[in-house]
Amino acid sequence: LQHLLTTEGLPKAVIHHILDTASSFVSIGDREVKKVPLLRGKSVFNLFFENSTRTRTTFEIASKRLSADVINLNIAASSTSKGESLLDTIDNLAAMHADMFVVRHSMSGAPFLIAKHLNDTRQNHVHVVNAGDGRHAHPTQGLLDMYTIRHYKKEFHNLTVAIVGDVLHSRVARSDIHALTTLGVPEVRVIGPRTLLPGGLDQLGVRTFHNMDEGLKGVDVIIMLRLQNERMNGALLPSAQEYFKHYGLTPERLALAKPDAIVMHPGPMNRGVEIDSAVADGPQAVILPQVTFGIAVRMAVMSILGGNSGEA
Ligand code: CP
């Protein structure tokens, strides 16, 4: 594995290898992550052209736990504001002996473009990790979601998983769907209004529901999504109250799922829009553990790509 750009087509064995490697970084019995020298002497460049709280910070923590030197490029204060192109920026950072680029960009495909450019210019020693590109993919979020599900549910082959909300604009939903189907989850449901579900979901092997109460019946895992207004280009949106009435996860709706169902959310949450605080802060929510698991999962991805932990 040279780059991690998407979960689409990622073999099942590779996904399990990443999850197992992540487990090896977590001390038994707690969620502490050990410091290891796997990326000592390597430079990881965080290039976040779009805002982030969880992903950027956990990549920085993960890089430090792997003993890498981590450089957070301040995009707003960089020479991209003077018109320097994305690929010229990449070439200049590669000339500073970058070993890995962690890239978030609002344009779908930007990390793929960078990876192709590095390969075309024979800079094959530099790795690219997609930290979220437009509405396309967010593979490390998908993988940390799989880690979370495996942590709480142990197996994938007996689960029903529901993904609820704005699937159309969600890179997380796409990465989750690819990973869940590869891992053998027999029933993946998507629940949302027609206007927020993309075409072609049948080809991805998922069941579509427009009625949330029907879609939540008997599920083991609920993954809630935020309305991604920043990707809607001024489309006519339902009001927050209207959306919450039909697609908000309340305690009453959660009771339709299995009694031991877990509630996940990639964050950031909009309380009172897609999720009630009583659920977000309730005993079935595993939203903050997801964030913590993201450190070990990102360590696993970076060490497999650029470290000495073995080949995937
Ligand atoms: N889940 C996620 O990508 O959150 P951030 O945008 O805060 O990184």
The CATH topology of the largest domain turns out to be: Rossmann fold
Instruction: Kindly report the average pLDDT value.
Output: 94
- Return the string of H and E elements: HEHEHEHEHEHEEHEHHEHH
CATH H-level superfamily title of the largest domain: Aspartate/ornithine carbamoyltransferase
Largest sheet: 5 strands, parallel
Q: Round the Cα radius of gyration to an integer and report it.
A: 19 Å
Structural category: alpha/beta
What count of helical segments does DSSP give?
Answer: 11
Specify the overall morphology.
globular
Give every kind of bound small molecule, once each.
Answer: phosphoric acid mono(formamide)ester
The N- and C-terminal alpha carbons lie at a distance of 6 Å
Number of domains: 2
- CATH architecture verdict of the largest domain: 3-Layer(aba) Sandwich
Strand content: 5-15%
Helix content percent band: 25-40%
CATH class of the largest domain: Alpha Beta
Low-confidence spans: none
Number of strands: 9
Q: What is the strand arrangement across the widest sheet?
A: 7-6-5-8-9
Protein name: Aspartate carbamoyltransferase
EC number: 2.1.3.2
Pathway: Pyrimidine metabolism; UMP biosynthesis via de novo pathway; (S)-dihydroorotate from bicarbonate: step 2/3
Domain Aspartate/ornithine carbamoyltransferase Asp/Orn-binding: 158-304
Describe, in plain words, how this protein is organized in 3D.
There is one protein chain. With 312 residues, this protein is of the alpha/beta class. The protein has two domains: 12-136 and 293-306, Rossmann fold (3-Layer(aba) Sandwich); 139-290, Rossmann fold. Helices cover 37% and strands 14% of the residues. The chain contains eleven helices and nine strands. A five-stranded parallel beta sheet has the order 7-6-5-8-9. Strands 2-1-3-4 form a four-stranded parallel beta sheet, sandwiched between helices. Helix 5 (139-153) crosses helix 11. The protein is globular. The N and C termini lie close together (6 Å). The structure holds phosphoric acid mono(formamide)ester. Phosphoric acid mono(formamide)ester is lined by residues 52-55, 132, 141, 266-268.
